[in-house]
User: Fold this.
Amino acid sequence: MTAVIAFIFMFGLLVFVHEFGHLIFAKRAGMLVREFAIGMGPKILSFHRNETDYTVRLLPIGGYVRVAGEDPEIIELRPGHHIGLEFNKEGQVVRIIVNNKSKHPNARVIEVEHVDLDHKLIIEGYELDNYEEKLSFPVHEKALFIMDERETQIAPYDRQFASKTIGQRAMQLFAGPMMNLILAAFLFILLGIMQGVPADRAIIGDIEPGSPAEQSGIVPGDEIVEIDGLAINTWEKFTEIVSQSPEEDLQMKVKRDEQIISINVTPAKIVQDEQTFGQMGVRLSFEKSIPKTLVYGFKQTYEITKLILTNLIMLVTGQYSIDMLGGPVMIYDVTDQAVKLGLETFIMWTAMLSVNLGIINLVPLPALDGGRLLFVGIEAIRGKPIDPQKEGIVHFIGFALLMLLMIIVTWNDIQRLFL
Assistant:
């Protein structure tokens, strides 16, 4: 149950932060955000505030921010349609009743001749008992469509995604991945505050009882400065030499209390997955430092980003198989293991997933933020937008392929669990 709660919390946090980035920059640009959703599929919870529906949906496979102009949720009024109109005190139309007009006895029913809800905000038509006089009604910029007793706010063109500048649209699309990277840096900084940051030199922290390090006389706080005449200035260099020297006598120079002393250590031989390596039984020391903690947060985010990009390149070039990809099932399994190892491991795993979510969404594939950014970039180069219908088809096909990939990856995850 702990793992389930941790997985739900982690998933909700990552998706919320990502979509919150899209939401904030959409609203800053003046776009009408119709829905902010966590999850996919049927609604579980929902509420409406400041023009936006906030929903939690059943399937934990993502989320979305739905901006006006990106989907055909508004019914198109055509000449001959009979609609009901309700007005405010200034004589502007504030409610457009598309059907079930009998439930709105105060509505003024007209037959439509012309409608412009994008630019002029006007409805023209005739009352049903008088076709000689054409009437014209101004529409309020926040008027509501009433269809099957469900309200949907109209979206004048200046509130739609397509009306904004290339920079505003690009920033709105980039904001989601950006927020995931910011969250990762914050979590790594939090981790640094909790446990300290790794020392930037080969300084010994914890020592396992009975290990070669303890038997040789090494104590916590010792700094390894030399091994067999080779200068050591990083932990990575120290562990590399130890790993390559199982059961070999190593002459180490150790800095302790500003003094240099010599110690002989013989790393134990460890065999794992048919590989042999040396091990001394020590861990790197951690230190408390606010400046170093801030640097650590951004440095770790950068390093994880590089690692993910390297793996993506290897996947695209065929060096990695698709079987190595993991989906929700694998993420849940690793989350379960991370929770068992403690809060700090869980925070690190969440930070790594946040980087992964941000980078993957920037890949220029249809239906992803990166794919949509690609279309905005093409528009900037060619000086005019690509036909929205053609772009929509591309994104639809891309989304279908992503869902297929998700099914394949999930099936692989399930097979791994039982093999």
Observations:
- The two ends are 24 Å apart (CA to CA).
